[in-house]
Amino acid sequence: MKYIKFNDKRVDSFLFMELSDLAKTLTRSDETEVEFAVQSYFDPFTKKVHISHFWDNRPRKDMVNGLKSDVFLRSIGSSRHTDYQAVDTFVKAAQNLSLSSFAKQLFVMLEDLRLEESCKKERPGTVRVFAARREMYRRFFKSQLIINQERTILTDALYSAFYLKATSDSPLEVFPSLSESIDLAVPFLEREILSFYEAKETADISKIVLSVTEVLEDLLEADMLNMYFHLPVLDYAEADAVLTFDEMKRKSKLKNDDILKQEKEEDDEDVHEDKLPTWHRETSEATKSFLQFDLEQGTKTDLLGEGVREGDDGDQALGMVQGSSKKTSRNDYSKLEALENAENREEKGGIEAFGKENKYAFPVFTVPDLPSADEQVSYREKKVIIAPYQKKLKQMIEKTLEHKKISPRSDLHTGRLSKKLLKLLTDDNPRLFYKKNQPSAHIDAAFCLLVDCSASMFDKMEQTKLGITLFHEALKSVSVVHQVTGFWEDTNEATETSQPNHFKTVIDFGSSLQKKRGPEILQLQPEEDNRDGYAIRHMTKQLMQRSESQKFMLVFSDGEPAASGYEQNGIIDTHEAVLQARKRGIEVINIFLSNGEIDEGQQKTIQNIYGKFSIVVPDIDTLPEVLFPVLKKLLQKSIHA
């Protein structure tokens, strides 16, 4: 498993992906995101489920249960059963209290306990997880109660006692003695705290907390010292704002927010030619069109209230005109604009095509230079090194193809009668015929080699080029089209809203079988960052345009993705890109390059991204030996397909 660093904590990336999928499923929204935070809460505006680092440094089973309980509590409870108008009212009231922090934390505690019950009723399968969550919190607050009592931090000690009393399975659990004045108020406090079980909505919790805090303000001298639960500062009044009638009619806001000041003229007769006019209160020009349509972009005008056209007798006549039509012999171009828009979105690297983590990334395609004399000499030297592997591979493929050509096809319903007639007695539906001279098989496959050109490849690039040379020459010798592309992100030019990603295709599909092609591979050099998920999606798009039945993508890399704003979610994004490619019939295989002992965490990271289709190369010098059986296996699969 890959551990992402967050505030010097390490997070299991595969578990993070599971939690993200769980949150999206429970909220029924693909826009929901999961993010680690100091405390757990739900942001209704950004639709982010924040899960707490309170569960770190625990046994794995406890950690998983704790994180899942956060996701359940926020995705089912906070997103559906919390009244944010009531939260807003409470926050405004709590600001004027001397025990403001205590009131807010007590509110979150009781609201979470109320939401737990709602979650368990709606999803009975969450009972076990919430039981584990409650047990861990009870152990925590028992220790906090002892510590706060010893240090005479009465407010925090009282808060701990409240949690233990509210979550106790026994009504006989004794409330701790904190001070003489607090002990006198204990019967009232217990009754108020336990009344949260009867609370049906957020407003009921607010009343309980304000009632308790009002009494305690006269008994406690100081506010809370520690932060156990967090009530974020948000504009809750807007979260549950009632939509106006116009907003309910409109599914999305206008793309522009400008206003057109229309000058009225005496002669404003509406004249139309070939175009059917449309009108609404935010259109760019005022017309007297009878027909009206909903538009998503335009310019606001001052027509509302005084620009509505009065109807006349001719309107209904026009509205009821009927006629006949028939299909014309001309081509239908009605979908052309939509198709062009979709292609433009993909070309711009939009969210729909290349993942939401890459919405600011855009491709920069470059072509190789003409090989220099030194590159040609160096490439010939590499060809000599890989020649034995290439020769063995070519012989293996030729023998396989020849065997398939002359091998008779047996167990057929028609053809020549076989001499082995025993199946007449043993089989109900015997196949006794065979045919000779099966046509020679054609290797109907296309390969894409995607090479990580990040700076960390500095000490591995030369041997990587040697391995790619083996692939290129071997595939060329058996007439299998392929492409070699290096990718990297330009760190110096990257900003939060602009991230150029370079793709340098040194060998393309169209010229991959030409004899002179090859020295261009040596132009791949270590550059800067790597945005793997984005690169895989681009190569997937190119492979899908190929007509071959077998498609392979080999990703040469030395570790996890690393780019601007891509550290935590890069692994998830790359994993999703790999899954999308495989769903489209492309086999994605990772060649994990290392130059020494492989860290277990790194190895599990790659396995999380690529599954079992990852080949680890612990010694970069052995890359050709490792790649030979890989290439052999893939080509054999293509032959037998």
List the keywords.
single chain; 641 residues; alpha/beta; 19 helices; disordered N terminus
Care to give the gist of this entry?
The protein has 641 residues and is of the alpha/beta class. The protein has 19 helices and 15 strands.
Strand-helix topology:
Layout: E1 3-6, E2 9-12, H1 13-27, E3 33-37, E4 41-43, E5 48-52, H2 60-81, H3 84-94, H4 100-122, H5 127-150, H6 154-166, H7 180-194, H8 202-216, H9 245-249, H10 313-319, H11 336-347, H12 351-354, E6 361-366, H13 373-406, E7 409-412, E8 416-417, H14 423-426, E9 433-435, E10 445-452, H15 461-477, E11 481-489, E12 499-507, H16 532-544, E13 550-557, H17 570-583, E14 586-593, H18 600-610, E15 614-617, H19 623-640
Parallel strand pairs: 3-5, 6-12, 10-11, 10-13, 13-14, 14-15
Antiparallel strand pairs: 1-2, 4-5, 7-9, 8-9, 11-12
| Rough outline | elongated
Give a quick account of the main beta sheet: strands, pairing sense, barrel closure: 7 strands, mixed
Q: Extract low-pLDDT stretches.
A: 1-9, 242-255, 262-269, 314-322, 338-343, 345-351
How big is the Rg?
34 Å
Measured as a percent range, the helix fraction is 40-55%
Q: In total, how many beta strands? A: 15
Distance between the termini: 34 Å
What share of the residues does DSSP label as strand, in percent? Answer: 5-15%
Mean pLDDT, to the nearest integer, reads 79
> Total number of helical segments?
19
Neighbour order of strands in the largest sheet: 6-12-11-10-13-14-15
Helix/strand structural class: alpha/beta
